Amino acid sequence: MPQIHHLPLADIDATALLRDRLALDAAALGTLQASILRDGLRQPIEVFAQPDTQPGTLPFALISGLRRLTAFQRLHAQNPADNPTTNPGRFATIPAFIRAPQDTAQALALMVAENEIRAPITPWEKGALLQHCLDARHFETLDAATETLFPDLTRQGHSRLRGFALVFAELEGVLTDPERLSARRMDRLAVALRAGLGELLHLTLADHRGAGPETQWRALEPVITEALLLPEAPPPEAPPNTPRKPGRPRRALHLRSGITLRREWTRNGWIIRINARHSEHPEIVDDILDLVERWFQGE
């Protein structure tokens, strides 16, 4: 068994690596603190030694055990040392395994593997981690990131993770509590984005910014349904290799006047939603109905 070291909390950098967990559950953290206070730490954290390349670099970087380290930090704050030099306190140091990853990519893979065993992260957090790794240039491609960080998944599983990363990259900052999205809902959002419905998703969310997760999801469902029920292919009666008319299908129309029209698919047919201020365009609905009537029925 690897040697267990007792490292000072002040020597461990919890932010040296990108973290796969975006938020810590307060209730679970409180339960963990109570368990450590009662029984001690049952599983050491994992760290690696950092090269001393810049002033202020801490000796060790955290690989896995963010919740355990946070719990120790809080317990140490709640139980201050009598004398920091001679008696630093029960929680001033934490048991740790010192690993020696070959590079940052391997360190990230160790972190993910540990969390998948102990407390899997959410689909949104997985997408965030993959996208952040690409942004930080830890991997050249999304495929390389998914295969390195989640090596035990099937080809279908890797494809699903790429969808999670796409959803995070496209919808970060516009969804309420995205960590609560189930894998199924993340899959459905990925289908809509891959079908080219990103603009409609953003327009829909703009009308529900700050609303609760369920309210936002109910608003998004018609857009997602279009992606699921209407594959981007020529109609069945079209001859083989029929080219699609340029610019079709039209998802939304933005007019210089500030009016936006967007289509929405339902199981009973199409709906065209009109975003316009009533005070500025009080007759817009009647005008559109008049135009449609003349178009289909003639003068």
UniProtKB/TrEMBL annotation:
Domain of life from the UniProt record: Bacteria
GO biological process, one term: chromosome segregation
Occurrences of domain ParB-like N-terminal (ranges): 3-100
Signal peptide residue numbers: none
Biased composition (Pro residues): 232-243
One family name in Pfam for this protein: ParB_N
Name of the protein described by the UniProt record: ParB-like N-terminal domain-containing protein
UniProt cross-references to PANTHER family, sorted A to Z: CHROMOSOME-PARTITIONING PROTEIN PARB-RELATED
Cited SUPFAM superfamilies: ParB/Sulfiredoxin
Region (Disordered): 231-250
GO cellular component, one term: chromosome
